[in-house]
Write a structure and sequence with these properties.
Structural class: mainly beta
Radius of gyration: 31 Å
Helix content: under 10%
Distance between the termini: 109 Å
Largest sheet: 8 strands, mixed
Length: 253
């Protein structure tokens, strides 16, 4: 064969194309013809020098020649599929001490071989570079054992050790390498803060006080407000961003 297909690994949702062409230098043998078969069922699944597929499969390309139909050359080839998922954005309150970001890898191998998997985590620096998290204070990685075609890797971020006061959002990236094929996923961590228009003050008889809180960083979300008494957090006092507190004036009888 002039072109020999090799095993491939594709990202989930993408398409891989195999090419298998017979030599045509021997005129007596005639024109080469390529057909594609499912290796497990031996069913014909394609006709022509190329075959495209988007799912894990073991296939065989078989080449015959027009004048020698009983002589064939075949080659086994396989496509394995890897998928990588994770949340696009993770929000956490300013008061949080830590947060976790996870990536889930799924691998569907066409053959029974066990894939070789490695994982690396990166964070985006202020100069737009992507250094690894290795050795960075406050960042630690926990990667589980690959089982049932899935592996989960989690980046734990200590928001206190990681100097939360210096930033409001930062991107992190997980990168899995499966038999030489790399898949990556980026997640942005966003810190939610509040500012207050009125702090704790005494309220006198008959006085009306308005307390308002507004997000320091809104991003693309709409906050939902709930106000409670600090001493009894069972009753919702207001669901607006403004809480009006009005004391009762007591008249002498």
């Amino acid at each position: 064969m002039e072109t020999v297909p090799e095993p491939q690994i594709a990202l989930k949702g993408s398409t891989a194309t195999f090419t298998c062409v017979g030599e045509s230098g021997n005129a007596a043998a005639g024109t080469p013809q390529t057909k594609w078969y499912d290796k497990r069922s031996d069913l014909l699944i394609g006709d022509g020098p190329t075959y495209s597929v988007a799912e894990a499969v073991e296939i065989v390309c078989k080449v015959t020649w027009a004048n020698q139909p009983l002589i064939s050359v075949s080659k086994d080839v396989s496509l394995s599929v890897i998928g990588l998922t994770g949340r696009e954005t993770v929000y956490t309150p300013r008061e949080s001490s830590s947060v976790e970001i996870s990536c889930s890898l799924t691998v569907t191998m066409a053959t029974d071989e066990s894939p070789t998997i490695t994982v690396e985590w990166y964070w985006q620096d202020s100069d737009a570079s992507w250094p690894t998290v290795d050795g960075v204070t406050g960042l630690s990685v926990n990667t589980g054992t690959f089982a049932d075609s899935e592996q989960i890797s989690t980046l734990s971020i200590d928001l206190i050790e990681d100097s939360i006061m210096d930033w409001d959002k930062r991107q992190y990236r997980c990168a899995f390498n499966v038999n030489g094929k790399t898949a990556s996923h980026s997640t942005e961590l966003r810190i939610l803060k509040l500012k207050w228009s009125t702090s704790s003050i005494p309220i006198y008889s008959g006085q009306r006080v308005t307390v308002q809180g507004h997000p320091y960083a809104m991003y693309d979300i709409s906050p939902r407000w709930e106000w409670y008494k600090a001493s009894d957090q069972t009753e919702i006092l207001s669901t607006s961003d403004v809480l009006v507190i009005e004391s009762v004036r007591v008249s002498k009888v």
